[in-house]
UniProtKB/TrEMBL annotation:
NCBIfam families xref list: PRK04387.1
Similarity annotation: Belongs to the UPF0223 family.
Organism field: Listeria fleischmannii
Short name of any one Pfam family annotated for the protein: UPF0223
Stated name of the protein: UPF0223 protein HB844_00220
Superkingdom field: Bacteria
């Protein structure tokens, strides 16, 4: 990993940790696979920190630009998941 996570310097350390954990779950979905319950829980916590859809989209685009991993595509797959694990194709 040679990129940084999109964070807001106004967030508390706990909020930053929550957002980073969510983006780590996105990475995991691409690299190894992640359980649907694990990504759902990370997303719920993320939405407490980032309740605005516009802000969520902005952070998602920044993360995708830096990493190549799309939070949108992971969440889209999660919505339609029929298995207990999500594994994205690179």
């Amino acid at each position: 990993m040679n990129y940084s996570y999109p964070i807001d310097m106004d967030w508390s350390k706990e909020e930053i940790t929550t957002v980073i954990h969510y983006f780590e779950m996105i990475e995991k979905a691409y690299e190894k696979g992640v359980s649907t319950s694990e990504i759902k829980e990370a997303y719920r916590a993320f939405k407490v920190v980032v309740p605005s859809i516009g802000e969520e989209k902005r952070l998602g685009r920044e993360f995708e630009d830096a990493s190549g991993y799309s939070p949108y595509q992971v969440m889209k797959m999660l919505k339609n998941a029929t298995t207990s694990t999500i594994k994205m194709k690179p």
